[in-house]
Design goal:
alpha/beta; eight-stranded parallel barrel; 8 strands; globular; 3-methyl-2-oxobutanoate hydroxymethyltransferase activity; EC 2.1.2.11; 3-methyl-2-oxobutanoate hydroxymethyltransferase
Length: 284
């Protein structure tokens, strides 16, 4: 074998960008990682936003347990149940036809054993029509991931800050600083080695996220994790400027939907009170 024929180390290939598919699958996200491409991910909890984001070309939609505090009014993600996640996920599956649909395993639906994780994931895939699940936790869940992938369930790992563990972590704090950086890298590599098709990192220093992305062959997703990851995710209400008050540092609002809806609601109420709406054109 000549030197020109010697295999190149992973990551040195100059591959062509993959052709966007009619349906995004985990293999397409891997192709993007292999070729230096990037992809976008947003949360979605209902049919209409799922359809809008799908048509806009968002590659991955996440039915996040963040529905608990962004839709249902809870203070944290902890109260939402698997049955409630299934309702939200069904709605997203009905609206999206192209994006890869991933659903969170909510708190209490997977921790007990790999068997519990498989059972909960099967319900999400059979009853709600999702194509993958996301599970929070570190290397101690490697056996869960191994069993789930062996059962045919694509698993997205979630490391760094894990909101379901906020009480154990002492609140919403950046993870992986200083000496704790290696633990994040070890968690990510253990879960990727166990079969996770992707690793999501939340609220970790940018240099640590970059080290994880270099250490694992699978795609990575960041939220508050710098710009070196393969993909990025935001809660859609944050992305669209729906929330009131101060947003986290890692959030960028790409619109001011809150003001648009507020103006529309006021104008509607004014026309109802004045008798302008409904007019003849709106009546039978």
């Amino acid at each position: 074998m000549t030197s020109a024929e010697q295999p190149k180390p992973y990551g040195t290939e100059q591959s062509k960008a993959p052709v966007p598919p009619r349906r995004v699958r985990t293999s397409y996200l891997q192709q993007l990682k292999d070729t230096g491409g990037r992809f976008a991910m947003l949360t979605a909890y209902d049919q209409h936003t799922a359809q809008i984001f799908d048509e806009a070309g968002i590659e991955t939609l996440l039915i996040g347990d963040s529905a608990a505090n962004n839709v249902m009014g809870h203070e944290t993600t902890l109260p939402i149940t698997l049955d409630e996640m299934i309702v939200f996920a069904k709605s997203v599956s009905a609206g999206a036809k192209r994006a890869l649909i991933v659903c969170d395993l909510p708190f209490g639906s997977y921790e007990v054993s790999p068997a519990q994780a498989i059972e909960s994931s099967v319900r999400l895939m059979k009853e709600a029509g999702v194509q993958a699940v996301k599970m929070e936790g570190g290397a101690h869940y490697a056996d869960h991931v191994r069993a789930m992938t062996a059962a045919g369930i694509p698993v997205m790992a979630h490391v760094g800050f894990t909101p379901q563990s906020e009480h154990a972590l002492g609140g919403y704090k950046v993870q992986g600083r200083g000496d704790a950086a290696q633990a994040v890298i070890d968690d990510a590599t253990a879960l990727a080695d166990a079969g996770a098709f992707c690793v999501l990192m939340e609220m970790v220093p940018a240099d640590v996220a970059a080290a994880v992305d270099a250490a694992v062959r699978v795609p990575t997703i960041g939220i508050g994790a710098g710009n070196a990851t393969t993909g990025q995710v935001l809660v859609w209400q944050d992305m669209a400027g729906m929330r009131g008050g101060k947003a986290p540092r890692f959030v960028k609002a790409f619109a001011d939907v809150r003001s648009v809806l507020s103006t529309a609601a006021r104008e509607y109420a004014d026309e109802v009170r004045s008798g302008t709406f409904p007019g003849p054109e709106h009546s039978f």
